[in-house]
Amino acid sequence: MALTKEDLQAIAVLLQNTTEPLQNAITGMQKDITGMQKDIASMQKDITSMQKDIASMQKDITSMQKDITDVKLHLENITDRNISLLAVNHGHLIDKLNQAVKVSDKSCLEEIRVNILTEKVEKLEKEIEELKRKTA
């Protein structure tokens, strides 16, 4: 069976009608792929930017961890020791203050006694002077 010229033309028309939608579909797919490539390129830039940010944050965290370790060591080695020394010395100061208060209390009592005795001596001196006048 041989194909005639008309058969070939009909086949050509059919192929043309079939290839146009395929070409349109391929063109649409090419546009979609181009859009996806742009989106992927944009995502790659975003990922690169995020990786840089994460690296920067890791450096900051490492620095903060070092600072925290330094603060902990300072608290443990210096501040805690100084607080202990202050507490011990505070105890000694309280003991000394208590001793000074006792001495101060005794001193006040002695001062009152001296004042009373001074008044009595003055009274006695006056009485002696009156007696001397009366006898003289």
Task: Tell me what you see in this structure.
With 136 residues, the protein is an all-alpha fold. Helices cover 96% and strands 0% of the residues. It has one helix and no strands. The protein has one helix at residues 5-135. The protein is rod-shaped and about 185 Å long. The termini are far apart. The mean pLDDT is 88.
Query: What is the strand tally?
Result: 0
User: If you compute it from the alpha carbons, what radius of gyration comes out, rounded to the nearest whole angstrom?
Assistant: 55 Å
The helix count comes to: 1
Note the overall shape. Answer: rod-shaped
Structural class: mainly alpha
Tell me the major beta sheet. none
Strand content: under 5%
One letter per element, helices H and strands E, the order comes to H
How much helix is in the residues?
A: over 70%
Low-confidence stretches: none
Mean pLDDT: 88
Straight-line N-to-C gap? 187 Å
Descriptive key words:
1 helix, 96% helix, 136 residues, mainly alpha
Write a compact overview of the structure shown:
This protein has 136 residues and is mostly helical. The protein has one helix and no strands.
Helix and strand arrangement:
Elements: H1 5-135
